[in-house]
Write a structure and sequence with these properties.
Layout (H helix, E strand, L loop, with lengths): L2 E6 H9 L15 H8 L6 E8 L11 H14 L3 E4 L1 E12 L15 E12 L1 H14 L5 E5 L6 H11 L2 E6 L6 H6 L2 E4 L2 H6 L5 E3 L4 E3 L5
Parallel strand pairs: 1-2, 1-6, 2-3, 6-7, 7-8
Antiparallel strand pairs: 4-5, 9-10
């Protein structure tokens, strides 16, 4: 049996470490994702291959070291055997009209409404869900994986899970990193389990690792 692990990096990050959880996230971001898979689904261990899907972040002005921390973490994952697949961030601009209320101060002008136009820019991560689905189907079609664990709560993965199970006979198990699991995605998997704080605490990488370049050290602050 060869179990492959597929991790939707941002879905995991914002699900496990987002504000909604209220967990002490800074202590657990140095996460060994392969250990998470084996910890939650021990009957599927050992993990034959780990594929981690993400995109390189754009560091905001209030946290200029964010990109550096991410790159150190990706290097750490590679050093323990994970394959990192990168999508992209794209800036999406949208024009919006901002409409105010009539002035309530004299002189009253009930017929006059203040308005303005603005352009809002937002970085959207592109490619991770498609890349995850592609490799999930690819590995099953080539007979490389006989079991699969997917770490995500993205409803876009429902059909890939169904195809892999029905067409290639690969059982797919789900790890939900979010507070509430998407019911349709859970139904498409052979089984679903939630990530927990105790799992995060138990599945940390060593504070220091090494690769062909040198020593990799866990960032002092997140």
């Amino acid at each position: 049996m060869s179990t492959y692990l597929y991790v939707d990096g941002f879905n995991l990050y914002y699900g496990a470490f987002g504000r909604e959880r209220g967990w002490p996230s800074g202590a657990y971001k140095w996460l060994d994702v392969a250990a998470v898979g084996a910890h939650i689904w021990p009957a599927l261990a050992p993990i034959g291959k780990t594929r981690y899907f993400t995109a390189l972040v754009k560091a905001p002005s209030n946290d200029p070291h964010m990109a550096m921390r991410q790159q150190v973490y990706l290097r750490a994952l590679r050093s323990v055997g994970a394959e990192v697949h990168l999508g992209t961030f794209k800036l999406r601009r949208r024009d919006v009209r901002l409409t105010g209320l009539p002035s309530q101060l004299p002189p009253y002008a009930a017929s006059i409404v203040l308005s303005a136009e603005a352009q809002i820019g937002k970085f959207d991560e592109k490619g991770s869900d498609v890349n995850l689905a592609t490799y999930l189907v690819r590995d099953a079609a080539k007979g490389e994986s006989t079991k699969a664990i997917v770490v995500s709560n993205d409803s876009d993965l429902v059909e890939p899970l169904r195809v892999v199970r029905s067409d290639f006979g690969v059982d797919v198990y789900l790890i939900n990193p979010q507070k509430r699991a998407v019911a349709e995605l859970s139904r498409a998997a052979k089984g679903t389990r939630d990530i927990t704080l105790s799992t995060l605490a138990a599945c940390q990488l060593s504070a220091q690792l090494s690769d062909t370049v040198g020593t990799i050290t866990k960032p002092a602050a997140w």
